[in-house]
């Protein structure tokens, strides 16, 4: 019975991942990240993603702060933040977030404040969607691990 529940949760994880790939939210880089996870580091992907979330929140705050400076918007600094955001998003396979960063950066290069504000809104939306879906994925993964039974190494005495 336990195996059956784990199989259902595994199927749920695969369906969610397939959906995220089909929608263009994730790309193959996410699969490569998953391949780095093993028994020695069973939480590797969630740890990397949590670091990404933490750093992304700071970058989003910085971008919003720069755009709120009415006349003094520092487009060069925004471009630097966007390059960081784009690089980290690309490295975890966050395809739609990366694509919005590219468009946002184009607006900063043209010092287009209105375009930057729209792009920031879109970036925050895509980031929140990604964050919610990855949290959902990790919750299913945790449930699957619990149902499958956690195996601890036998200690020799």
Describe it.
There is one protein chain. With 157 residues, this protein is mainly alpha-helical. The chain is built from 6 helices and no strands. Mean pLDDT is 89; it is low at 152-157.
Q: Which tags fit this structure?
A:
mainly alpha, elongated, 157 residues, single chain, 6 helices, 0% strand
Q: Briefly, what is this?
A:
The chain is an all-alpha fold and 157 residues long.
Relative strand content: under 5%
- Terminal CA distance: 33 Å
Overall 3D shape: elongated
Query: In terms of per-residue confidence, which ranges show pLDDT below 50 for 5 or more consecutive residues?
Result: 152-157
| Number of E-type strands | 0
| Rg (CA only) | 19 Å
Helical proportion? over 70%
User: What structural class results from the helix and strand content?
Assistant: mainly alpha
- The average pLDDT is 89
Order of helices and strands: HHHHHH
Biggest sheet layout: none
Number of helices: 6
């Amino acid at each position: 019975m336990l195996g059956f529940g784990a199989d259902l949760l595994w199927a749920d994880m695969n369906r969610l991942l397939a959906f995220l790939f089909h929608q263009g939210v994730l790309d193959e880089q996410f699969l490569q990240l998953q391949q780095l996870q093993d028994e020695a580091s069973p939480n590797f992907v969630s740890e990397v993603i949590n670091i990404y979330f933490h750093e992304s929140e700071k970058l989003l705050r910085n971008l919003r702060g720069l755009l709120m400076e009415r006349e003094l918007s520092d487009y060069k600094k925004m471009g630097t933040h966007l390059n960081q955001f784009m690089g980290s998003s690309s490295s975890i396979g966050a395809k739609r977030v990366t694509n919005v960063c590219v468009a946002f950066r184009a607006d900063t290069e043209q010092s287009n404040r209105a375009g930057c504000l729209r792009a920031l809104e879109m970036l925050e939306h895509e980031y929140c969607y990604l964050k919610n879906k990855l949290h959902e994925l990790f919750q299913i993964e945790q449930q699957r691990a619990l149902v499958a039974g956690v195996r601890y190494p036998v200690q020799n005495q």
